[in-house]
Amino acid sequence: MSVAVEIVLGGAQEMYPAVITQKEKQFVRYIGNLYAFLPYTVTSQTTTVSLASSNIESYTKVKPVSQQDTTVKYGPYSNIAPLTEAELSIHAENNNPMLVVTNLLRVIELSMWGNIAVEETVDVRHNGAQLKGSFSRYEFQRENSGVSSVKNFKTLLPAAARDVYYRDDIGNISTSHMKVMDDAVELDIRPRFPLFGGWKTHYVIGYNVPSYEYLFYKGDNHVLNIRLVDHLFDDMLVEEAEIRVILPEGVTNIQLATPFPVKREQDGKHFTYLDTTGRTVVAFKSMNDLTENHIQDFQLQFTLPHSKMMMEPLILVTAFFLLFLLSIIYVRLDFSITVDEGAQAKMKVAGYCEKVASLQDRRVALYQAMEDAMVKLKSNKNVADFQAALKKIAADAKTETTAIAELQTTIKNVNPDLGEKVSELQRNDKIYRDHQAAQAVLVEKLVTGKLQKPPYLEQEGVLLKKKVEVSDKMNALIRAF
Question: Is the dihedral of CA 136, 141, 143, 145 positive or negative?
């Protein structure tokens, strides 16, 4: 019969030296037992030690022993007595990441509408040789120093993971990269700064997965079958882990089955949108350190009638129905005890002022038409067509001005101040049209040769300046309405 035993030792290596500079390489020392510590005689035994590099400072030399590249082989040793001990010490270079997860909070939120949201809050510490002195990013980038530091590490997420995010207390960390593979989603985690020995980082990873891959049911009985922990990085060691599973509202008969012993905490409540009694939170903690061998599934069984799934949609529909009903009632009822005549008068004046502003916009369009006619006269020199255009513009302007005059009388009876502003608008309109008429005369004289261009430009410049001043005054009056 053949028996295979695998032992994972956390923290068995000693940083030696314990403190190094940014440029130095990291050396570790392992001290253990040269022989298998067994309660019976071992007929033949061979120990093979695989190292991270071929740079070996020292190692125990108990013959027969051989060293080749990154491997040190002891034995075979024959007829070793029970419980025999002999020191095995190896001191060699090892710049591999010495990352340890000091605390892991894994929150799994189950939705009965087809989605499972997973969020992991991770505290990581680099247990390598501590940094001597201050850190120089300039030397780190120029000389590629800090060989023992951790610049990045890879996390594996489920193949169906989507909407992945990676952030810390400051916000999203954009230096990460994601690669979708056939059997997993590889997330290249790059902290905001390289991790030297003794340094820590804190980050959050979240993603969504479809519930049909992890949730199974028969009738009202459901079973959630999902990983207790995921692959955070190679050779991971998790000192403390807490898993919280947020179940839908209204679950009963909760039963938890884990692949190894855990400490079950008291169930709690989690409130989110449209909840009434709150969602049940099943929480449990690891009792020992976790490694990659603990990446196993756990089962959480519960009972949930399918009719309860309709509770939140019904609450939403009812809320919108009541909101619309109250809005209908509110806009159709008049809760005032007496009629506010002042408010009605203000509303009427506001309506009249809007009409005045609209009529003024039409007059502004006529101002522009006049400008276009003068430009056209300069190009075609057809005075007859120009005079015809002026008559039409003058007739249209008279119509708009008369309409504003009628509104002015009405507004003045209700609000004398606004009535005065309309009157001032009328006066400025007349002044503006007079300036335009004078400009038209100048253009005719220029076209017919009665006025030379230099005096024309001088007189036109004066008129243009006056027109701008009057136009600004009319715009200010319209805004005052």
Answer: positive
Question: Residue 238: inside a domain, yes or no?
Answer: yes
Residue 401, exposed/middle/buried by CB under 10 A (0-12, 13-18, 19+)? Answer: middle
Give the list of residues 6+ apart from residue 205 with CB closer than 8 angstroms, or none.
Answer: 119, 120, 122, 155, 157, 164, 165, 166, 187, 189
Q: Which of 237, 234, 213, 235 is nearest to 225 (CA)?
A: 213
- Rounded distance between C-alpha atoms, residue 230 and residue 228, angstroms: 7
| Per-residue CA distances from 479 to 338, 353, 406, 418 (Å) | 32, 10, 20, 12
pLDDT in tens, the chain (481 residues): 778 888 888 888 999 999 999 989 999 999 999 998 899 999 999 999 999 999 999 999 999 999 999 999 999 999 999 999 999 999 999 999 999 999 999 999 999 889 999 999 999 999 999 999 888 887 888 777 788 899 999 999 999 999 999 998 888 887 788 999 989 999 999 998 899 999 999 999 999 999 999 999 999 999 999 999 999 999 999 999 999 999 999 899 999 999 999 999 999 999 987 788 899 999 999 999 999 999 999 999 999 988 777 777 888 888 899 999 999 988 888 666 655 556 666 777 778 788 888 888 888 888 888 888 888 888 888 888 888 888 888 888 888 888 888 888 888 887 888 888 888 888 888 888 888 888 888 888 888 888 888 888 888 888 888 888 888 888 888 887 7
Q: Are the C-beta atoms of 54 and 69 separated by less than 8 Å? A: yes
Same domain, 280 and 416: no
Q: Is the domain of 144 the same as that of 220?
A: yes
Separation of alpha carbons 29 and 15, rounded Å: 6
Tell whether 12 is covered by a domain: no
Is the entire prediction scored with pTM above 0.70? no
Residue with tokens 């023992």: 148
How far apart are alpha carbons 362 and 396 in whole angstroms? 9
* Residue at 259 is within a domain: yes
Q: What residues have CB less than 8 Å from 448, skipping those under 6 apart?
A: 383
Strand order from edge to edge, sheet including 87-93: 13-15, 27-33, 87-93, 56-59
Is there a contact between 12 and 32 (Cβ–Cβ < 8 Å)?
yes
Quick check: 465 and 398 in contact, CB under 8 A?
Answer: no
Closest CA to 149 of 9, 292, 14, 21: 21
Looking at the fold, whether 117 and 252 belong to one and the same domain comes out as yes
User: Does 117 lie in the same domain as 80?
Assistant: no
Q: Which among 367, 229, 360 is positioned nearest to 288, based on CA atoms?
A: 229
Structural domain containing residue 469:
341-480
The pair of three-digit structure tokens given for residue 350, joined into one six-digit string: 């506001």
Residues 381 and 435 in one domain: yes
